[in-house]
Amino acid sequence: MTCSRYNDVADWKWTALLDVMNGDEKHKTASHTVRTKEDLNRLLDKPAFAKADEIQLVEVLMEQLDAPRALLEQTQSKHKN
Fold first, then answer.
1. How far apart are CA 77 and CA 81, in angstroms?
2. Residue 72 pLDDT more than 70?
3. Confidence band of 9 (pLDDT split at 50, 70, 90)
4. How far apart are CA 18 and CA 30, in angstroms?
């Protein structure tokens, strides 16, 4: 399977995005990075995260070809036709 370049996300400090957009620090913000399902579950289970009293950004790092099963099945069925 080949990977298209247009799906590549530029290497950047994505968790700094809220700092860039909130230069005057007018809004309370928080950025998070998760690398595993367990990391994501821990973050989602945190009461402070669920409270959502601030603008939050979650950077999810995944394997390059990682995708939901339903999406993979749909693309495979299109290639068969």
1. 7
2. yes
3. low
4. 8
